[in-house]
Amino acid sequence: MEKLSMFCCVLFALFLRCGVSLNSYSGAHKPPMFGDYEAQRHWMEITYNLPINEWYNQTKDNDLMYWGLDYPPLTAYHSKLCGIVANLMNPDWVALNTSRGYESYNHKLFMRATVLVADIFIYIVAVIAFVGITLKKYSSYEQVLLTTMLLSYPGLILIDHGHFQYNCISLGFTLFSTVFMMRQYHCISSMFFVLALNYKQMELYHSFPFFFYLLSVSWKQKTWLQSVVKLGGIGSTVIATFIISWLPFLKSLESAQLVVQRLFPFNRGLFEDKVANVWCAVSVVVKIKNLISQPQMVQLCLLSTVVACLPSCFDLLRNGTRKKFLYSMINCSLAFFLFSYQVHEKSILIPATSVCLILWMNPMAASWFLVISTFSMYPLLVRDGQSTSYFSLVILYVMLASFLCKSQSYSRWTKLVVSLSLTGCAALHLAFSLVDAPPSLPDLYPLLFSVYSCAHFVLFWLYFLYIQWNCPKHDSADLLSNKISSAKKIR
Questions:
Q1: What is the DSSP letter of 63?
Q2: Which end of the chain has fewer CB atoms surrounding its CB within 10 Å, N or C?
Q3: Cβ-Cβ contacts under 8 Å for 14 (sequence gap 6 or more)
Q4: Which UniProt keywords apply (predicted)?
């Protein structure tokens, strides 16, 4: 019965993904640049047709100004694999230069299928592993409900299967890494995290928690020699995984530098569109880019991000427990999202996926955050024609969250705050739909969504930081002692 229930959860998750994939996608029928859908298709074209030394290099057949490859090597290898399959099905889909902006019904089916396959074999398997291994002492009902919520998070479904990206791969690798970390297989955990980092460099958002937790674990060994051996084993795993991932680009220093320059383009803007982070919110009042130079802005972002991560990292280094590690993943990734340079709206998926992992410990705060994170991307999603899918998935998720939260009692104050927050979201949606922005303020609604969401994220960051610092200072023998039904009342 339990296996059948899990199978039904996966079928339900696939149904949601397929339903969303029937809609439009980023940049559909919008030349000359189109959108992320075309970017992914173009990378298949480039990696399939060109030698590996030209993938990240400006050449006559690889115009970096037209969706140049700017993700790490594992993304490039994945694109090449998809390109090989695409060429077998229809060579026109990846024909060099002539396939730009290619759009057809069959091609859309193929592209959607590549995301679905990646989701099934990486992210969905990782979720099942997390629930089955980390939460194995929960009741079948609780496991099924948590699995359903993890697989039904609207933000990831809408971006990967609607907007069109492959976030499920890097986030799935990170989730696998977390599963092995919870089971204290530190070298395997490190390998999976390096794979995630080498698929999308934005997984740097999670790098501090992994580094400081593993450092803390190494220091806690019984002898100095054991500490050195432990740290050496982890370090060797990390280095070996990096070398294998980057091997084709390590033939020369210049080749490696070209890749690094593409991964960290500091010549771009401070943020993309109206992202819900501190710099975008502050820019409403103060135009920072007019006050300081671009290099100074990069330095300010770096300093702000490190300072924002320090409290969580210091606590994790001093008292490295698995629960603190889970909260540190949230706190550091949120700090990166709020304060770092060149942040995209979709980057909120990184802290959001970490928040998914504490649904079993803190259902109200976690589900509330996940709804707000999806809300923050609405201006992007509405441009992609995802409004119907957005509202359907968010309403479904709120209903699932209500079932999860029934097992806890909450104060009137907590219920009032959450209700007011969601009422504000509903009010903004109504205004967006019914009242046109004045011609002098064309970006009014994206900015309102951004600032409203940013205020929530800052408060969530402070709240989760407080929770991390107040977690027990020692790992209990049973990590799962915090059953949903026995969790403390939130006041």
A1: -
A2: N
A3: 116, 120
A4: Endoplasmic reticulum, Glycosyltransferase, Membrane, Signal, Transferase, Transmembrane, Transmembrane helix
- Please give the single-letter amino acid code of residue 489: K
Nearest CA-CA partner of 428 in 254, 276, 277, 319: 276
Q: List, for residues 161-186, the tens digit of each pLDDT value.
A: 999 999 999 999 999 999 999 999 99
Secondary structure of 383-398 in the HEC alphabet? Answer: HCCCHHHHHHHHHHHH
Which position has the token pair 């109504």?
430
With the C-alpha atoms ordered 131, 241, 230, 206, is the resulting torsion angle positive or negative?
negative
Please give the backbone phi and psi of residue 24, each rounded to the nearest 5 degrees, phi first.
-75, -175
Residue pLDDT, tens place only, 458-489:
999 999 999 999 998 877 644 544 555 444 43
Cβ atoms within 10 Å of 483's Cβ, excluding its own: 15
Q: What residue segments make up the domains of the chain, in order of their start?
A: 1-28+103-470, 29-102
The H helix count followed by the E strand count for the chain is 21, 0
Nearest to 76 by CA among 47, 48, 98: 47
Buried-exposed string 261-298: b where 16+ CB fall within 10 A, e elsewhere: ebbeeeeeebbeebbbbbbbbebeeeeeeeeeeeeebb
Type of residue found at 286: V
Report residue 414 as tokens: 């907590």
Angle at alpha carbon of residue 473, lines to 470 and 478, rounded to 5°: 105
